[in-house]
Write a structure and sequence with these properties.
7 strands, Rossmann fold, alpha/beta
Amino acid sequence: MSRARSRFRTRYYDLFSRVYDRFVAAHSSDREGRLREVLAERAGLAPGARVLDLCTGTGAMLPALARRAAGGLVVGLDFSRGMLEQARGKTAASSVLVQADAERLPFRDGSLDAVTCSHAFYELKGAGADRALAEVTRTLRPGGRFLMMEHEVPERLPIRVLFYIRLLSMGLRKAMEVLGHEESYFERHLGAVERIETETGRSKIIVGVKEG
């Protein structure tokens, strides 16, 4: 990615951080945040667990993860300083915010019990999605889980158009490879991949377990 494009992307997400929570709530029909609780519950965290929220954005997932990993470590990682500034008010004592790239995770091999990614995976660019998944697999312990929650294709035409515009940020080829084929895509890196339909019907959860 050129420096100009990188600066534009950074600036875009720094500005987007100001409306991000409202955008996700409206898009997923989950204004009360129930789906984040479902995602955290599916992570199967025990007290003392070490968990990463990848592309954490404004940190909306962090409280739900911290409640289940009591006494452990919850890390919210994002490349956008603006997003992390918004997240600071949501972090618990056991939570840490890290500014870093999803494609180059600053964690040791096998050091994490679980990784979550809520409504952000489709933002990864082209081959960046493959590199991020490889990094997730590297940092998970055997038996650790990666859980992705993403929007289903919206029914309303105006929102559907916005959804496809967002999806195309991955690049047309990558978008066609991933959308509707998430299970087979994740199976390239993880085993025992499962798709879970959510109560609103507007989001889906894909769970993959790292093989031992």
